[in-house]
Structures are given as structure tokens and as C-alpha cells.
Amino acid sequence: MNVEREIQQIKVRNQRVELDKRWETSWTRRIAILLLTFVVVLIFNFLVSQQVNIVLSSLVPVIGFSLSTLSLGLVRKVWENKSGRKDENVG
Fold first, then answer.
1. Are 71 and 36 in contact, with CB atoms under 8 Å apart?
2. Is 70 among the domain residues?
3. Which of 17, 49, 62, 80 could make a disulfide contact with 86, Cβ separation 3.0–4.6 Å?
4. Number of structural domains, the chain?
5. More confident of the two residues 72 and 55
6. Is 32's pLDDT higher than 60?
């Protein structure tokens, strides 16, 4: 009986890992990172205009990437629901 429960737990974990792999290689994730980073850079450029120094401009990609990865949780949930890839047994 214990072996059957362990096998079921392994199957659930494997489903979760497969979903994670599909997400990491999905075009949705890649495009979301690109778009969110672009939006941050665009806003930054409108705010600072011609008065940019090298240190401040070097922070733009870092901040853009950080903000895009923070918002990827929401994008992933939408992706899972729209693509029909979310398995009810996962998580």
C-alpha cells in the first residue's frame, strides 16, 4: 500500500516537472520577458530623456528583467489555463 502511494506521488511530481519544462521553453514566457523589459526601458527613456548617465542606464536592463520575472507568475497562470496544459493533479 505504501509503495502505491509513493508511485502516485512520483507521478504527480513528474507531471509538475514536465509542466515546468514546457513553461521554461515556451514562446509565451520568452515573449513576455521581451515585452515587459521593453516597456520598462521605454518608460525609463521617457522619464530621463537626454539626461542619462552610464550607471543609471546600466540599471535599466537589470530592473526590466527583474520586473518581468516578478510578473511572470501571472503570465504563467494565464498560459496554463489558455493552453489547457494545467493538470488538476499538479501542485
1. yes
2. yes
3. 80
4. 1
5. 72
6. yes
Query: At 21, which amino acid appears?
Result: K
Whole-model pTM: value is: 0.57
Q: Does the residue 90 lie in any domain? A: no
DSSP state of 75: H
Lookup: cell for 71: 510578473
Which domain, by its residues, includes 13? 2-83
Q: Judge whether 75 lies within some domain.
A: yes
Contact by Cβ (8 Å): 44, 60? yes
**Residue 28 confidence (pLDDT) above 70:** yes
The four Cα atoms 42, 47, 52, 55 give a dihedral, to 10 degrees, of -80
How big is the chain by its Cα radius of gyration, in Å? 19
The string of DSSP codes covering 10-71 is HHHHHHHHHHHHHHHT-HHHHHHHHHHHHHHHHHHHHHHTT---HHHHHHHHHHHHHHHHHH
**46-71 tens-digit pLDDT:** 777 666 666 677 677 777 777 777 77
